[in-house]
Amino acid sequence: MKGIILAGGHGTRLYPITLGISKQILPVYDKPMIYYPLSVLMLAGITDIVIISTPRDLPAFQRLLGDGSAIGLSLSYAEQAEPRGLADAFLVSQHYIGDDSVMLILGDNIFHGPGFSLMLQHAVKEVDGCVLFGYPVHNPQRYGVAEINGANELVDIQEKPEKPRSNIAITGLYVYSNDVVDIAGELRPSARGELEITDLNRAYIAQRRAELIQLGRGFVWLDTGTHESLIEAGQYVEILERRQGVRIACIEEIALRMGYIDAETCHQLGYRLGTSPYGRYIMDVASAR
Question: What stretches in the chain show pLDDT beneath 70?
Answer without folding.
Answer: none
